[in-house]
Amino acid sequence: MGGAARVAVCAVLRKEKARYPTVSTTPQKEKSIKIFVSHRIDLDSQTIDNPLFVPIRCGAVYDEREGITMLGDDTGDNISEKRTSFCELTVLYWAWKNCDADYIGLSHYRRFLSFASHEIPGAALRCGLMDNMCRANLEEARLLDEHYMRKEIEKYDLLRGWSYEVGKDTPGTLPARSIRDSWKVNCPEYISEKNFDRLLMAIKRLYPDFYEDAVEYMNGKEFLGFNCFIARREVVDDLCSFMFDILFYLEKRNVIDEEHFSEQNMRLPGYMGEWLFSIWNYHRTKQERYNVRELQLVTFSDTEPAREIAPAFSTKNLPVVFSVNTENLPYIAVTIRSLYQHRRAGWNYDVILLHPSEFKGSEEEYFFQETFQSILEDYEGAENISIRLYDPKDHLGRLEVRPWGEPNGKDQYYLTMLPWILPKYERVLYLFSSLLLVQDDVVTLFEQDLGERSIGAVHDIYFYGERLKNANCEKKISFMDDPYAYAGTDVVLLDLTRLRETFDASDVLLSWESDTEELSSADMFNMLFEGEVSFLPFTWDYYGVQDGFFKVMLRDQVPQWVKKEYTSIKKPVIVNLNTRYKTRQNPSDHWWRRFWRVARETAVYEEILQKLFMAPLAGFGPDFLQKATNPSFSFQLGEDIYNRFAFPWRSVRPGSRIVLYGGGVVGKMFLRQLANNPYCHVVAVCDQNPAGTGIREAPVIDVRQLCDLDPELYDLVLIDLERKDIAAEIRADLELSGIPPQKIKWVDPHRR
Q1: What residue spans define the domains of the chain?
Q2: For the chain, counts of helices (H) and of strands (E)
Q3: Average pLDDT over residues 385-407
């Protein structure tokens, strides 16, 4: 082939090669992605085990702690000293000026963009809400999957949160015509009307092309906020130039009044930053300048790192475990006091209060912590007792992942999961009931020989009397081979070592996850550990409240051997003052007198009085508390004083429109509790006999009228009945009648 021909062939080949470029076998260099997570210097917050997240201290220049290795925002070009006013924007500024990654992001220590393929339930502002940062929750939000996150991030120029709509997504707020008006009427301490105008004037002066959209955005109904995003480097340059140019311009013009501003007012630049972030996004979206993906923002209420708990004492350690919440903590304080009064010399009492993080940061949690500190003060200086709160997150696996405010709280899983919640313990005494009175030393119980079994408990008299009834009744117990081996769960001794050797935690968790019968915690406990229980004498769990119902139940319903064993007890060690049915209680009764004697020695005595008496007896006059605190008082409690029912606050979202199904005692108690609390709105009460309810607080309708009611007019039908089996039948009937299943709910109304 001649030279000219060769040149011609080469030219053709080059054209073909250009059409079909060679695929390189050399792996492409990964783009660097750094999502900076702003951490407070006054909190020990959990970090996420994913290299894409870079924890950094906000305002690190003020951090006086020693030995801190976390990156700070006080190196290089920084504004760390502006933390009190610029908030997490000091971290964003540091990342902008000192990081050369291909993608830069900003998250808060408790707020992240979720990469889950589904919406995570939440409370408001379209944000998902999760209890804590346990592994299961992080996996649910797909924040541990580096490969998937990287793949998704690299598809876009910008990833940001969802906007929320004023009114629709802001329950509990005052109505407003626009997002600007909403801030003015609902949070005026954030930005004043004058500073809104200053912000607009600064935008008009420095970035006039943004001004028209800024005005339009402020007068709209949608808001983005939160300053959480991930973006390519050049997009971050665009955003930060706009944001910080304007903030520094306003700062020089003294928008901050350091002499008169409150701590909240001082955060003005941070709030203005949220508006600038939102306006910038709105303007660039209208221009279609960037390829954007919107992700749900998820908030974690508890960000404390998970920790394991170990025995408080090296020798003679007697662990006593309770499940506590705001309602039962004062009563449990009485149990602890009675336990301590009957302590055995030489033994140490390791009291563990299992307390989930569902309401971390809430007012409810604040009062809970106040009560807990009062209890600790009762034992200040005592060397043989330790009282600790413990949140067993990371021990419940997928059971941690559930809709916010779901009726069955995590505490229902504690009893079955104790062997793995407390891996450093060999044996524990678990006291579930909130009204137990210890009358003697419990070391004897703790040292009980269980033989070849793992659990010590008494027979459950109420189960036999209510669920099994008598031998002439048909038994519908499918989850146990021998229902007459059903153990009570108010007082339980557990050999944790043997249980860990016999059972696997994953199997127990799977049983909960695959439960189709909606078993109670006691049912699940008995199903899982049937055959492992060594039954104890009723000395260790003796019902002190023996009303007429209880006595009839003993006579007519329970096996005679149970009655014989129960009535033979003359000197109980642990007295249970709970009862399944509301009944007239008499504080001058033998066991109640003992309860009050112990209660008076606690720091929470007045709180117990308030819980038992003040709410239902508000009409008795201002001198009632003075009478009640007199040691000699004797007052016949009405039916709804102590064993009153509790409206399921945790299970109903604030602002919900509800229909109460049932106009009986439970429904009336719910109406009383809601009467002075605008927590939610009762649309109607449904009852089979509307005329016979005597209810005046809300419209009363029959079942046919409920079925004809437009489902858009209510959010929830709350079945307010005591018995779960009857509630299940009503639920089935309502579903067959066309009521949306997701709008029907039953929660055990008994206050524990």
Answers
A1: 33-302, 317-595, 649-746
A2: 26, 27
A3: 83
